[in-house]
Specification:
The chain has 9 helices and 16 strands. It is α/β, with parallel strands linked by helices and 391 residues long. Strands 1-2-4-3-5-16-6-15 form an 8-stranded mixed beta sheet. A 4-stranded antiparallel beta sheet has the order 10-12-8-13, covered by helices on one side. Bound molecules: nickel (II) ion.
Length: 391
C-alpha cells in the first residue's frame, strides 16, 4: 500500500506544486479567505469528495470508506499574514499587504493532496476521513468556531492530525512528541490608576509610572520564584503606555502582555497570582487598578497513545533517523489545541530547513519560502496515517 501511495503522489507532484502556487499568489487574512475556500471547495468537488461550507470561509470535506469504522480528521489552516511579500518569486502574492508567510499555502496543498489520493482508495478505507480547512489560525482563531459549528460531529471524529511546516528542522524530517508541543497563549491588560500632577511636586500626586514599573518587576517573581525552574513559563509585558509630557505625572498607565506555558494547570493559577500581585503592588503604592486576563489558545497537547501509533507510521514512511523526538516544545501557540482538547491526536512539525537551496528564512518573514519537495512528504504522511488508522 505504501508504495502504491508513493507512486500516486509522484504522479500528482506537478499538480501539487501548481495548487500551492495558486494559494501562494492569492493569500487572504483570517475570516476573509473567500477565494481560498472557494478554490478548496471546487477542487474537492472535482475529485468527488463530499464537501460543505462550515462558516463563511471554513470548508470540510469527507470521504466515506467502503466499510464502517472510525473517523479521522486532517486539518489545514488556510489564512495568510498581513505582510508585504519580498521573495521575488514569480508566483509572489498578488494581494497587497497579505502573504502566505507561515506556510499555510503548503498546509492547504498537503491536505488537498491527501484528499485527492485517498479518494482513489476508498475501497481500502473502513470508516471516514474528514478534511478540515480552517480559517483564521493566526487570529482571531477558527478552530473553536468550527468545533462549535459541529466539525467534530456527524460522524463523530475519533482522532485528529495536523502539522506545521517548520524551518528549524532539516528538510523532510519531522519533530514530534507525545506531550505538549506548543504552549498556551493568554493575554493580560492592566491599568494602574494614580493621580496626575506636576513632575516637580510628586508628593501631591500618586505616580502610576512608578507603581507600574514596580509591577513589571514584581510580576516576574511569579515565574522566577514561584514556579519550578523545570517548568516552561513566560510572562512578557509587551506594551507599557503612560504619560505624554516630560514634566507631568500622568493619571494612569496601561500595561499589556502575554503569558505562555506548557502545563495546563497554569491557566488557573497564573491569573489568580497575577491578580494578587497587581493588587498588592497597587495597594502598597496607593494606586487603583483594573486587571483583565483572557485565555486565547490552550496548550497543544499531543495524545501519548496516538503518538506511539503515529511514530511507527512516520518512521516507516521517512526512516527512523528522520523522526525526531522533540526535547523542547515550542513556546508559540496554535489553535489546533482546541481540537486536541476534544479528541486525541497529534500535531507535528514538518522540517523544511534547506540552506543550500536558500530555504533558510524563519516563518513570518517577508522572504519566507519552502522547498516544494515537502508537499509530497506531507501528503504521504497524511495518507499513510489515515490508511493505517482506518485499516
Ligand atoms: Ni502558522
Amino acid at each position: 500500500m505504501k508504495s502504491l501511495i508513493r507512486k500516486d503522489i509522484e504522479e500528482f507532484k506537478n499538480q501539487l506544486i501548481e495548487i500551492r502556487r495558486y494559494f501562494h499568489q492569492h493569500p487572504e487574512l483570517g475570516l476573509k479567505e473567500y477565494k481560498t475556500s472557494k478554490k478548496i471547495y471546487e477542487l474537492l468537488k472535482s475529485w468527488d469528495v463530499e464537501v460543505e461550507y462550515l462558516s463563511e470561509t471554513g470548508v470540510v470535506g469527507i470521504i466515506k470508506g467502503s466499510n464502517p469504522g472510525k473517523t479521522i480528521a486532517l486539518r489545514a489552516d488556510i489564512d495568510a499574514l498581513p505582510i508585504e511579500e519580498n521573495t521575488g518569486l514569480d508566483f509572489s502574492s498578488k494581494h497587497d499587504h497579505a502573504m502566505h508567510a507561515c506556510g499555510h499555502d503548503g498546509h492547504i496543498t498537503m491536505c488537498l493532496g491527501a484528499a485527492k489520493i485517498l479518494s482513489k482508495h476508498r475501497e481500502d478505507i473502513s470508516g471516514n476521513v474528514k478534511f478540515i480547512f480552517q480559517p483564521a489560525e493566526e487570529g482571531p482563531g477558527g478552530a473553536k468556531m468550527l468545533i462549535e459549528k459541529g466539525v467534530l460531529k456527524n460522524p463523530d471524529v475519533d482522532a485528529v492530525v495536523g502539522l506545521h511546516i517548520w524551518p528549524e528542522l532539516p528538510l523532510n524530517s519531522i519533530g514530534v512528541t507525545g506531550g505538549p508541543i506548543m504552549a498556551a497563549a493568554d493575554r493580560f491588560d492592566i491599568e494602574v490608576i494614580g493621580k496626575g500632577g506636576h513632575g516637580a511636586i510628586p508628593e501631591l500626586s500618586i505616580d502610576p509610572i512608578y507603581a507600574a514599573s514596580q509591577l513589571v518587576n514584581t510580576l516576574q517573581s511569579i515565574v522566577s520564584r514561584e514556579s519550578s525552574p523545570l517548568e516552561s513559563i513566560v510572562l512578557s509585558n509587551c506594551m507599557f503606555h503612560g504619560g505624554d509630557a516630560f514634566n507631568i505625572i500622568p493619571n494612569s498607565v496601561k500595561i499589556s502582555g502575554t503569558t505562555r506555558y506548557h502545563n495546563p494547570s497554569f491557566s488557573k493559577t497564573l491569573p489568580k497570582r497575577m491578580d494578587e500581585v497587581v493588587k498588592g503592588v497597587c495597594n502598597t503604592l496607593r494606586c487603583n487598578y483594573e486587571f483583565k486576563y483572557s485565555h486565547w489558545y490552550p496548550v497543544t497537547l499531543n495524545d501519548s497513545d496516538f503518538y506511539k501509533f503515529f511514530k511507527v507510521v512516520a518512521e516507516d514512511v521517512l526512516g527512523t533517523d528522520k523522526v525526531i523526538e522533540l526535547k523542547n516544545p515550542s513556546m508559540g501557540a496554535e489553535d489546533f489545541s482546541f481540537y486536541l482538547e476534544k479528541v486525541p491526536g497529534i500535531y507535528f512539525f514538518l522540517g523544511t530547513r534547506d540552506e543550500e537551496n536558500g530555504f533558510d528564512k524563519p516563518i513570518h518573514h517577508p522572504e519566507y519560502n519552502f522547498s516544494e519537495d515537502i508537499l509530497k512528504t506531507g501528503v504521504e504522511l497524511f495518507c499513510n496515517t489515515v490508511l493505517k488508522y482506518l485499516s
